[in-house]
Structures are given as C-alpha cells and as structure tokens.
Amino acid sequence: MLLALARRRIAERHQQRTSHGGARTGRPGGEPVRLRHRQTASDGLCGAFRPGHFDGVATVVTKLFLQTGADLAFFGEKDFQQLHVVRQLVRDLDIQIEIIGNPTVRESGGLAMSSRKIRLSSAERRTAPKLPEILFQAARRLTSGELVERTLRLSISRSSH
C-alpha cells in the first residue's frame, strides 16, 4: 500500500513538473527557468565566441545536480572553462556537491580524445597532433621569460612544418 502511494505521488510530481510538450518549467504554467552565470567565469577564451553557451551549461548542470542529489560530479579538465563555470556556480548557489576535475585523456600522439575531432578536415587531422607539444613548448618559453611576440613567431613557424 505504501509503495503504491509513493509511486502515485512520484507520477503526480512528474506530471506537475512537465508541461508544454514535456518541457521542464520553472513553475506550473510558467516559462522555463534559465540561469545566467557570472560573466567572470566565461570571459575570454571560447566564451567570447559562444554567447549564451555557458548560460545553457549552467542551467542544465544545475538542474541535473538538484534532481539527482549527487555528492560528486566529474568533469574533464579538457573543457577547462566549463569546469571553472561549474565550480563557480556550485559555490555561488551553495549546491552541496564536490566537483572533481579529471586529467585530459590523450591519444598516443598527444592529441586530446574528443568526439569533436570528427569535424576536422584531413589536413587539420595531420596538424592537430602537433598542437599539444607546440602549446607546451610555448608555455615553457613564456615561463622562462621569452617575449610573447618571439614565442608566437616560433610557435607559428613550428606548426606549419
């Protein structure tokens, strides 16, 4: 009897939470809730070229965290900016979950594993494995005090070989 009541309540709650063709809404009969993250987490990098992207990330991730009640969430460090946005939103909203960054998994040539590589042309696929080493070398040069202009010039010339 108690199990049947719990199932009915869950079904009723689900029905209340869905409307407008199954879209989740922020309140019964209302527009969906969308979060706007603090800009500091997404300034620059790819956030500058993808307006609204991290608002979507913040909204979806927050809903997922609140609905699952998970204690831990794992994010790849390959998407560093997204990881930073998620960590910031968890702090800002006091969501009780630990965000754990995982190192980027790389192929034998050094290129990060990613489903997005299917979008690369054959020429880009040949160049892409060189990028991690070029970036690591540029970081070492800059850290050792080399001028930015010289570092960029050397990095660009190395990438074309």
UniProtKB/TrEMBL annotation:
Family indicated by similarity: Belongs to the pantothenate synthetase family.
Top EC category: ligase
Organism the protein comes from: Mesorhizobium waimense
EC number: 6.3.2.1
Keywords, comma-separated and alphabetical: ATP-binding, Ligase, Nucleotide-binding, Pantothenate biosynthesis
Catalysed reactions, as listed in the record: (R)-pantoate + beta-alanine + ATP = (R)-pantothenate + AMP + diphosphate + H(+)
Top-rank taxon: Bacteria
Protein name: pantoate--beta-alanine ligase (AMP-forming)
Chain segments carrying region Disordered: 11-34
Involved pathway(s): Cofactor biosynthesis; (R)-pantothenate biosynthesis; (R)-pantothenate from (R)-pantoate and beta-alanine: step 1/1
GO molecular function: ATP binding; pantoate-beta-alanine ligase activity
InterPro entries, per database record: Pantoate_ligase (IPR003721), Pantoate_ligase_C (IPR042176), Rossmann-like_a/b/a_fold (IPR014729)
